[in-house]
């Protein structure tokens, strides 16, 4: 394969993955709006429509419209976004359930928070809650520079390790409400699956909220429009964790605080690589072939 053909291929792969994940999130957001308006759906049909029919159809439409510019969407080397992104998703999902299994449920304690009692239980918010899984990986397919990819990966790792240490040291649990029945509505069907898979004692801080905010901040560096949508999506995910009674409000605030502190700290480090050990600078300074080191670019490197 020639170099030009390889550029076309990886530009196509990256754009297909971005649009598929993006439209999958949008489909979940639309389902939330519809069920909130009173609509209900058959799960047997929707498990194909939401993750397959809608995003694949819309992705094909967008790729056709952008066919002549796909090479510009590539990011070299390809493993810097594809390999790192897939590895990070596996690390997050695997380590989360590993920590949940290692936690002694008898040590987990309930929080007595008055404000949470005024928040109603709304199962339909599960569709915003589910957005976090594709949203986690979306920035890897959009970031314009490898520096953003590496910074996001490091941020995810640091943020999750801090959260896991807190989970193990002082586990907090939530007394989830009893669902009316797994087949009562499309939303309770989905929330029942969440309850069956997600341990109820990985609460404080909310990693659901922390990874959503960090992903949104990374998207903000990729473009204004997608950044605004990303921040709105992160806020919707945070709200959903409270309305589905998966988290306390304090979990959300703690998760956002950890994410923002991580993002701010890493942004400072990436702008001041002279303060980090020499081996670590390889992930900071050589963003793209031919670019000047990050230390000489100052605030312009984003």
Structural descriptors:
single chain, two-stranded parallel ribbon, mainly alpha, 302 residues, disordered C terminus
> What is the H/E order?
HHHEHHHEHHHHH
Low-confidence stretches: 286-302
Based on CA inertia axes, which overall geometry fits?
A: globular
Mean pLDDT: 86
User: C-alpha Rg, in Å?
Assistant: 20 Å
- Main sheet characteristics: 2 strands, parallel
Q: Please give the order of strands in the largest beta sheet.
A: 1-2
Instruction: Give me the number of helical elements.
Output: 11
Helix content: 55-70%
Termini Cα gap: 34 Å
Beta-strand fraction estimate: under 5%
- Based on helices, strands and strand pairing, what is the structural class? mainly alpha
Q: What's the total number of strands?
A: 2
Task: Give the arrangement of secondary structure elements.
Blueprint: H1 3-36, H2 43-65, H3 82-102, E1 109-110, H4 126-129, H5 132-137, H6 146-169, E2 172-173, H7 186-197, H8 207-220, H9 224-243, H10 249-271, H11 294-297
Parallel strand pairs: 1-2
Helix pairs in contact: 1-2, 3-6, 6-8, 6-10, 8-9, 8-10
Verbal overview:
This protein has a domain at 77-271. It has eleven helices and two strands. The protein has helices at 3-36, 43-65, 82-102, 126-129, 132-137, 146-169, 186-197, 207-220, 224-243, 249-271, 294-297; strands spanning 109-110, 172-173. A two-stranded parallel sheet has the order 1-2. 38% of the residues are buried.
């Amino acid at each position: 394969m020639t170099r030009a053909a390889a550029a076309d291929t990886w530009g196509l792969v990256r754009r297909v993955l971005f649009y598929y994940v993006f439209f999958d999130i949008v489909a979940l957001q639309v389902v939330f709006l519809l069920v909130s308006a009173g609509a209900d759906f058959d799960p047997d049909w929707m498990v194909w429509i939401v993750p397959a029919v809608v995003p694949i159809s819309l992705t094909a439409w967008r790729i056709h419209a952008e066919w002549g510019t796909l090479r510009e969407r590539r990011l070299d080397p390809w493993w810097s976004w594809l390999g790192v992104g897939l590895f990070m998703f596996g690390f997050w999902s695997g380590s989360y359930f590993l920590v949940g299994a290692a936690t002694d449920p008898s040590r987990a304690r309930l929080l007595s928070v008055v404000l949470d009692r005024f928040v109603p239980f709304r199962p339909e918010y599960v569709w915003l809650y589910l957005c976090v899984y594709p949203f986690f990986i979306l920035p890897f397919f959009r970031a314009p520079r490898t520096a953003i990819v590496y910074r996001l990966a490091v941020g995810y790792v640091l943020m999750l390790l801090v959260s896991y240490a807190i989970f193990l040291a002082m586990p907090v649990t939530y007394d989830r409400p009893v669902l009316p029945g797994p087949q009562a509505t499309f939303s309770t069907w989905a929330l029942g699956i969440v309850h069956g898979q997600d341990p109820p004692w990985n609460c404080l801080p909310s990693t659901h909220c922390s990874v959503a905010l960090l992903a949104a901040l990374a998207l903000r560096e990729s473009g204004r429009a997608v950044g605004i949508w990303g921040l709105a999506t992160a806020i919707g995910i945070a709200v959903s964790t409270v309305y589905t009674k998966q988290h306390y409000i304090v979990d959300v605030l703690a998760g956002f605080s950890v994410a923002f502190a991580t993002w701010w700290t890493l942004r400072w480090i990436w702008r001041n690589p002279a303060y980090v050990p020499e081996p670590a600078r390889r992930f900071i300074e050589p963003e793209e072939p031919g670019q000047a080191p990050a230390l000489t670019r100052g605030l312009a490197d984003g």
